[in-house]
Each structure stands twice: as structure tokens, then as C-alpha cells.
Specification:
Length: about 280
Amino acid sequence: MPLALSERVIVERAQMLPAFPTVVNDLLMTLDDDNATIGALIQLVGRDPVITARVLSIANAAAMAGRIQRDVRDMQVAVSLIGVARLREIVLTLSLAEFAHGAHVGRQFWEHSVAVGVAAQELARIGRASVDFALVCGLLHDIGQLWMARCHPLEFQMVRMSREQEPGLDIIEAERRHFGVDHCAIGSVLAGAWQLPPSVVAAIRHHHEAHPPADKLVAATHVGEALANALDLVGHDQASVVEVSAGACELLGLHWDDDLNFLFGRIEARSRFLNRIFS
């Protein structure tokens, strides 16, 4: 008998998870603000001493690589060394890494999320969509599974057992059998409750669907997970996308007949680099 989970119950039980980092929402809001300045971004980062320390650490590493004999202790200097785009990526990844760590998530779950985030970024770049929004979509695409594991561990294990006993059983079907809903639906409810942008909510909700998406971020997340699994970056197969939407690839301008080795290599290198930094 599957669980009877309403949106209200999902949100209430999300209290078992760590508080969602508000810096993510604040940073994403600055992307739509034409008046947002580097100073405002630095002020935003400065609220969190952990993030500030990590940014300065990365800036110092960049300074050493560039043979700059200087101990970077100022955020303005740090931004000049690593760039605004890199700063946003660091803040988003680190804040969500802290969130996942606080939820006691397994290492493989987080490494897979990073791989999908990076793949979604690279695909968003091809499709001329926001790489920052794509990163968040990828990092949070399986957040519903984290909720399942924390709030209903017995049923979560039953899903795993069902797939072991029935090879080929789709993860979505297995989850609906025991939870009544799948991790995509649960994740989208959580994202909505955290007041994330509608495009992020949609990407989380529809990342397993093979029909043509109407949004490039949905497409990037959907194809991004398929690529992360196909490249076998972390050996994660618990929530793999079974069928890749041809419409999603078309929307992104991704053509499999092209030489995509550079894209694959970049996804692999960047995902391993980020996982090494933020593990």
C-alpha cells in the first residue's frame, strides 16, 4: 500500500532536512536585476564566513598559479582574480554542498548531483540559457530522493529492493509503487516551497520526462542527467533517465552527429574538479 502524501505533508516533513540556504535565492534574484553590481554580490557573499573563506582560498590558489606573490584577503581582489561568473558558481555549489552535507547525504548522491549540474551548465551554454540557473537545476534535480531517504527510509529501501528484485523496473514506477508519487514530484514541491524560480521548479519536476520540453532549463537538466550517467562519472544508476527526448536535444541545438568529444571531456573534467573542491 503506497503512502498518501499531500503537498502539505511533503513540506511539513521537509523540516527534517536542513534549512535551505537563502543565499541561493538571493543570488539567483541578482541575475534578473539589471542594477545588481559586483559590490552587491560581494556583500551577499560576505554574509557567510564559510563561503567567504572558501572564495578567498580559491582566489589565493589562483594567485599562486599565476605566480602572484600576494596573500588575498580582500573580496574585491578575489573577484578580480577568479571572475564574477566563477564566484557565482562557487557560491551556488558551496552553499548547496553544505545543505547536502547537513542532510547527511551519501557521497555518491552529491557527486552525481554535481555531475548533472555541470552537464546542465554546458548544455545551457550551447542552448544559450542561463548557466547559473542550469547549475542549480542540476544540483537539485534529485532533491526528492533526499527527502525520501530522510523522511521515509523504510520505503526508500523498499524502492531499492524492488529494483534489485525486478531488473529493468523504472525508478519512477518503483517510487510510485511505494510512495504514491515519484522523486520528481516531491522535489518540485520542495523547490516551490523554497520559492525557487518557476523554471527551476519545472526542471526538477520534468527531468525524467521524454516528451519535448518547452523550457531550455528543463531540456538541459533532462539531457544533462542522461549524459552524466552515460559518461559513468560516479557510477550512479538509482535515478537514471531511461529515454532521452529528441525534442530536448533539438531545443538545445545539440546534434549527436557532431563531434561532441570536447563537450564530454569538459563535463568530465569540470565535474571531477568541482567534486574534488566541494566534497
